Task: structure prediction
Amino acid sequence: MTTLRTPGPTLGVVGGGQLGRMLAEAASPLGVELIVLDPTPECPASLVARDQIVADFDDEAAIRELAERADALTFEIELADQDAMDRVEEETGVPIHPKPATLELIHDKLVQKRELREAGIPVPRFRGVDDADDVRAAIDEFGAPVMLKARTGGYDGRGNVPVESADDAEGALDAVAGPAMVEAFVDYAREVSVIAVKGDGETATFPVTETIHQEEILRETVAPARSGDDVRERAREVALDVLDLMEGRGVYGIELFETREAPRDSERSSGRSSRGGGEILLNEIAPRPHNSGHWTIEGTVSSQFEQHVRAVLGWPLGSTDLRGPTVSTNLLADVDEPAPAALAGVDRLLEEPGAHLHWYGKAEARPLRKMGHVTVGGTTGESLDGLLERARSLRDVVTFS
Amino acid sequence: MTTLRTPGPTLGVVGGGQLGRMLAEAASPLGVELIVLDPTPECPASLVARDQIVADFDDEAAIRELAERADALTFEIELADQDAMDRVEEETGVPIHPKPATLELIHDKLVQKRELREAGIPVPRFRGVDDADDVRAAIDEFGAPVMLKARTGGYDGRGNVPVESADDAEGALDAVAGPAMVEAFVDYAREVSVIAVKGDGETATFPVTETIHQEEILRETVAPARSGDDVRERAREVALDVLDLMEGRGVYGIELFETREAPRDSERSSGRSSRGGGEILLNEIAPRPHNSGHWTIEGTVSSQFEQHVRAVLGWPLGSTDLRGPTVSTNLLADVDEPAPAALAGVDRLLEEPGAHLHWYGKAEARPLRKMGHVTVGGTTGESLDGLLERARSLRDVVTFS
Result:
C-alpha cells in the first residue's frame, strides 16, 4: 500500500534531455521528485528536476551517487552504461527499471532481431554481414534494394544506409564503418508505433500511432493510426508479445511496419490473411518513453511519461484511453550549422486554438535537432487529416533564426 | 513578435505554494522558467522552479533580487507586499502583473465592495461597522442572520463570523478582532466561480464552475456549473465586468453567489427577471489562479496556470474550451494537530480510471490544510453527478495518518 510523503519518492534518471524534462513535468503532480544525471550543465530536464548530477552517462561513481539519492533508477537514453548500472543495482539495492539487461538486447540490432525472431515476433528478413560479399548475397536473397544497418549506435536513421544494387555494397559498408547487418527493404503502407507499458503485474498499451518520417527522422505522429481496426489490433498484439520479452517495468516505444502486401516481407508464415490491411513487422524497440508517444500528454488520459513514472515505482498504471484524435509535429532545427537556439514566430503557434507548444530548452540548435514539438487535437470532433494539415502549417510558420 | 530562446523568459513569482508549483508545471512546456520567493525552504514550488529565493514576502531587497533575475514578476499570494512591489517595479522597470495596486482593492473587503458597487457590479448588501451598535443596526436593516467579516486578512473563511441575532454582536466582534464589515446573508442556490483572464488586449473566461464549500473551505468543484444557461451567461458577464476594473494582466478567480430568490439580496435593481435561475452576486475576487480553477489542468484545453503564464508575459491567450465534464476535490489534511505529511491509501486513487492526483509537496499536514487535489473527468460522456460521487468516494479512501 502506497503512502505519499513529502519529499515524495525520488526517481534517479540517467539522461536529462527532453524525455527527462517531460518525465519531470509528469512526476511533479504525483509528488515524485527527479534527479537527473547528464553531462551537459543546465540540460533540458534540469529546469524541472529537483537536481542534476553533471557527469557522463558511464560515470559509475556518479550513477552510484544517483542511486544513493533515489528510491528507484531509470534511464531515458540508450547510451546508458549497462554494466555500470548492473553493478550499481547490485551494490546499492536500488532497483533499476527497465532492467539494464534490456539495453543489451536493444544495443545490437542483429542480436535483437535474432532473439525477436526466435520468440515468434514478426520481423523483416535480415542477415548479419561481415563483408561486401555478404551484402551482395543478401541482395541476391532478398532482392534490391536492401537496408544496411550498423548493428550498434544507430539513432534517428544514423547508421542506416540503403543499398540499391550489388555495386554499392563496398561504399555502403564504408559508410556504416563497423559491424553491420542487412534487412530486406519493407514495402510498407505506413509506419506505426505502440507505446506499451509494463507495470507491476499489469500491462497497458496506448492507442496505435501512425508515424511519419522524412530522412528517417520522425516528423509527425497521427493518433490513432489511420489503419484498419484489424491492423491496429494486430499491432497491439505484437507490441504485447514484445513486452513479454522485455525485462523490468517501464514504458517501451515499439516501432512497427504495416506492410503493403502481407506475405512478401515477412519471415512469419502463419498463413494469416490480411484483408483490409497489411502485415505488422517489428522495426525498432526503445526501452523508454518515445518520440512517437509525446502526443499522449494531451491525447490520452495519462501520458506515456506519467505511466513511466508509475511503472518504474511499481504504482498502479493509469488509463491509456484516447481523449480525442491528436497530431503532433516535431520542431526540428532548420539551421545549416550549430547556433544558439532561437525560435521565431511563436505567437502564431500560441494563438492557434488547441495547439500545445512543448519547448525542450536546448541551448544550441543543430541541423535537424529536435528542439520541441507541437500537438493539436486531444478533443473530439476534428478529423485526423484536418489536424495533420493544421499541425504542418503551424510548424511551417516558426523558424530557427 | 515572440522569439523563444534557451533559457526562455523567466517569471519571478512572489509566493511558492501549490499555485506556484502548478504554475511551474505549466510554464515548463512553454519554455518559461520560474524563480519563486518564499520564506519556507523547499516550498512546494521549489521542486519544479528553476530556483527559490528564501525570503519573506515583504522583503523588499529580495523582491528586487527576484526582479533583477526575471523578465516579469507576478504573485500567487495576496500577502504579497504591494508597496514594496510598486517600488521594485518602478526602480527596476521589470513589469509586475497583475498590478500591485489591485491588491489594495482586494485587501480591504469594505473598500472592495464599495468600489464594485459603484462600478455597477451586483454585490450583497453590506455596511461598514465600528461597534456592536453598528452590527445591530445591520441586522435591523438586512434581517438576521448576517455575516460579520474582517475587512482584511480573511482566507478560507477565517475572519468570517455568522451573527444569528443582535445578542451575538459583541461576541462576533471580539472574534473578528479588528476592522470589520457586515454583509447580508445571501440565500444562495449555489456558489459559482469564473476564472477570467486578462491578456494583452484580449480577455478570456473559463467555463463557469460550481464550488461546494464546507466550513467555508472549498471542498469540490463541478464544471460546468449545474446552473441554467442564462445564469452561467450572467456569471460570465459579471466576471468580465469585474475584469474591467482590474489593473494588469493575469488570471483572476471571481467567486459568485447564485441566489435562490432573485431580487431580495441584491443591491442592484435592474428589474431583470431571473427565470430558470437566480441572480448573480459577487462574493470574492482573487487576483491570481484560484483553487476553483484547478480542474482546468485536465478539464480545458489550456489550464488557468498556462493562461496566467501567457497573460503575465503578454503572450496570446490559449483556448479555454471545455474538454469534458470535470470534478475536482481537495485533499484536506484530516489531522487533529500538525504532523509530517503522509497520505495513505494512494493506490486506490492511482488505479481509478481517469483520476488525476495532484500532490502539493507540503512537508507538514495541519488541520484542514490543502495538501493536494484529485480531478476526475475531462473526457466526454460521464454525468457530473456521477463524477462528483466518484471524486468524493476517492477522497474518502485516502487518509492522513
Notes: The CA atoms of residues 218 and 291 of chain A lie 8 Å apart. The radius of gyration of chain A is 21 Å.
